[in-house]
């Protein structure tokens, strides 16, 4: 019995660590706005803006899946953004909202253009949710509630209250 306990403790520890890593999926570590990025900021040619938006719109109604990063399995918020930018602009982004925030540069909300990022504090920590701005105050995102990729408004009371930052990776 002692041997079984010794074997089961490491297995429980591994399982616990695995669960904690998976739970970091969309929201990541939460990072602070003032932290320096661990990598240089990403710069994407503005000619890819329309393709980013069209690729994102083609994924409307895709299933939500925590930790998901592909249409066949479903998406979480940062998985959706990473997939879109990789396929539409050839730009690899991390599957982590705080990391994407650290690789992008802040812009004024009034300066948002189609393809830019919008970030929200939905879990009482910075950069815990994100979407891709579409224009006219709307963005596409993979929220857990509703279970599908959808378009929401920045004016929606839920998101308006939790809006945190507008950011971009585009060169203009």
UniProtKB/TrEMBL annotation:
Coiled coil: none annotated. The keyword Protein biosynthesis does not apply. InterPro entries: NLP_P60_dom, Papain-like_cys_pep_sf, Peptidase_C40. GO terms for biological process: proteolysis. GO terms for molecular function: cysteine-type peptidase activity. Residues 46-170 form the NlpC/P60 domain. Pfam families: NLPC_P60. Keywords: Hydrolase, Protease, Thiol protease. Belongs to the peptidase C40 family. PANTHER family: MUREIN DD-ENDOPEPTIDASE MEPH-RELATED. This is NlpC/P60 domain-containing protein. It comes from Pollutimonas nitritireducens. The lineage of its organism: Bacteria, Pseudomonadati, Pseudomonadota, Betaproteobacteria, Burkholderiales.
């Amino acid at each position: 019995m002692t041997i079984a306990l010794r074997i089961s403790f490491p297995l429980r520890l591994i399982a616990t660590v695995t669960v904690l890593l998976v739970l970091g999926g969309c929201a990541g570590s939460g990072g602070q706005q003032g932290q320096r990025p661990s990598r240089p900021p990403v710069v994407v040619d503005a000619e890819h803006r329309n393709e980013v938006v069209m690729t994102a719109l083609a994924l409307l109604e895709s299933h939500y899946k925590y930790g998901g990063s592909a249409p066949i399995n479903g998406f979480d918020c940062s998985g959706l953004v990473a997939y879109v930018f990789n396929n539409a602009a050839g730009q690899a982004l991390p599957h982590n909202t705080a990391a994407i925030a650290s690789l992008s540069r802040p812009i004024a909300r009034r300066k948002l253009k189609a393809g830019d990022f919008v970030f929200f504090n939905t879990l009482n920590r910075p950069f815990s949710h994100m979407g891709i701005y579409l224009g006219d105050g709307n963005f596409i995102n993979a929220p857990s509630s509703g279970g599908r990729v959808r378009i929401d408004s920045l004016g929606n009371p839920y998101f308006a209250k939790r809006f945190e930052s507008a950011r971009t990776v585009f060169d203009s």
